[in-house]
Amino acid sequence: MSGEEKLSYSEAIQRASSSICRFPLIPVRGIPLMNHIANNWDSIWAFRPDPSDLLIATYPKAGTTWTQEIVDLLLHNGDAEACKRAPTPARSPFLEIFSPSPIPSGLDLMKDMDPPRIIKTHLPFQLVPPGFWENKCKTIYVARNAKDNMVSYYFFDCMNLTQPEPGPWEGYMPKFMHGELSWGSWYDHVKGYWKEREKKNILYLFYEDMKENPRREVERIMRYLDLSLSDEVISRIVDLSSFEKMKENPMANYSCIPGLVFDHSISSFMRKGEVGDWTNHFTPEQSKIFDEDYEKQMKEVDIPFRSLI
Around Cβ 215, how many Cβ atoms within 10 Å? Predict the structure, then answer.
């Protein structure tokens, strides 16, 4: 993608930023989605990927951008400059996103890209367009432990001025527990992909594993993509995709999004990237209530989540 195209993407966001607001949620098959997504649902559902396309799926704030960067670096043999050709959302389009004109939708961006494409989604399994499964597209799913995921999502909802007003922290936890946030229930999301992972050849990763041993997980992704890179290149990819390097990388840290859309004075898009930060925000009583509800909602599955604390 040329510099002119990169500029046009950023310019489009800048021009539309004055019309940005906290968009309401509309249920699509029971899942609350922002109105621009819901109003264009038929075109999203009808999307037909190329069999070579790769889908990266997560619940919001579970390591999406991190995984997109790792995959892009793997596909470009660890070439840092090649992976700075455009901001993350232009390199790896957001499948379902629709925003006010003239911001291009994810579908618009993909029309101008040749397969194989790296495609991002936050859609729960049941809302992923069936073409992905019919064409046997490879899918990487990343899951993050519920408490850390909720904390990260809360701060994101505070700074992302297109998401519904999150309100105070005390009221956010019930919304998370009841699946009332954008893209619905965390519990149903992680369970949906987990249950289908073997039938659909989904590489199911955990954020905590990626933090604990990033090289091991980068190599897992490499093998899943049928790639074979040298130890030197893998080491470079691990370094370039570290939280510290990505936070300083303007093509990965979402600094391309103007303040009227992402208010970085409230919270940076890449905030901490830590495991166990939830202990700084949950009171003992909140943790007890959350744990009891978690046990009920996750009792029928045995997904090996860890908090590493």
Answer: 13
